[in-house]
């Protein structure tokens, strides 16, 4: 698959930044997120061996709809969605758990070629989330919005804290500024693997996405409000934090009309 590594949930999906050390729950250049700082973030989990396991991230975009990556839901598994969580290993009393009633992958998604794009899916929940200080709807960008190079953004997720490492039990975040399409599609970056329906962020060789963060959000500040501009899609096959190989996200603003048509 070119030089691409799908952020596949442990074996299925993912994406986060590298750990400073094994005994610190922090991301290189980032930190453990303040509890419930990103209230639209959800954990997509699958059932296996008598228990539930985190596989991907996602964003609550309606009270009964979640946006994630198509590659996160390619497998025929028993999924559930958990909103309002921070530490996956502790019952905090803020969680809301939902079974999945339907999954809609973009019709042009090709599971054999993530570089073709369209790595986006919508999950209809069995019930509606109750909005509170722990669970909120993501703010999506306007159709066609393209952020400038170096625009400030953050990735968040429970993904691996280092290449071939372990999932984080707490939600982590890392600062990943946007890398413009003109730069990211250059020969020394991703070249033709990146399409203009994608958004690149990071690439400093330290901070990145990794397995377990796939499908999760890229939060970007616009007019004082954090909007979800990206759905975590892929990183380099040589490792999560390879210099000049920014984490690549599905650009949400390219799919606003599709999202609206599915939900309506």
Entry summary:
By secondary structure, this protein is mostly beta strands.
Key words describing this protein structure:
single chain; 15 strands; 9-stranded antiparallel sheet; 2 helices; 6-stranded antiparallel barrel; Thrombin, subunit H; disordered N terminus; globular; 264 residues; 5% helix; 2 domains; mainly beta
Question: Would you write up a description of this structure?
Answer:
This protein is 5% helix and 33% strand. By secondary structure, the chain is mainly beta. The chain folds into 2 domains: 4-33 and 139-254, Trypsin-like serine proteases (Thrombin, subunit H, Beta Barrel), CATH 2.40.10.10; 41-137, Trypsin-like serine proteases (Thrombin, subunit H), CATH 2.40.10.10. The radius of gyration is 16 Å and the shape is globular. The N and C termini lie far apart (34 Å).
């Amino acid at each position: 698959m070119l030089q691409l590594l799908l952020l596949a949930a442990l074996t299925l999906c993912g994406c986060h930044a590298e750990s400073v050390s094994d005994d610190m729950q922090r991301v290189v250049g980032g930190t453990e997120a303040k509890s419930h700082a990103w209230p639209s973030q959800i954990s997509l989990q699958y059932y296996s061996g008598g228990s539930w396991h985190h596989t991907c991230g996602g964003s609550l975009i309606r009270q009964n709809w979640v946006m994630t990556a198509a590659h996160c839901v390619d497998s025929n598994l028993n999924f559930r969605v958990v909103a309002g969580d921070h530490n996956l290993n502790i019952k905090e009393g803020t969680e809301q758990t939902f079974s999945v009633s339907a999954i809609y992958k973009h019709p042009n998604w090709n599971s054999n070629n993530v570089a073709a794009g369209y790595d986006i899916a919508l999950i209809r929940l069995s019930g509606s989330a109750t909005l509170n200080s722990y669970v909120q709807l993501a703010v999506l960008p306007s159709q066609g919005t393209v952020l400038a190079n170096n625009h400030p953004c953050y990735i968040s997720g429970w993904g691996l804290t280092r290449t071939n490492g372990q999932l984080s039990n707490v939600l982590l975040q890392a600062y990943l500024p946007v890398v413009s399409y003109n730069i990211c599609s250059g020969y020394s970056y991703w070249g033709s693997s990146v399409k203009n329906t994608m958004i690149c962020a990071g690439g400093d060789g330290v901070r990145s996405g990794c397995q377990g963060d796939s499908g999760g959000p890229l939060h970007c500040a616009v007019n004082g409000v954090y909007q979800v501009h990206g759905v975590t899609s892929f990183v380099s096959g040589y490792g999560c934090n390879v210099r000049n190989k920014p984490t690549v996200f599905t650009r949400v603003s390219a799919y606003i009309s599709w999202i609206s048509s599915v939900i309506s």
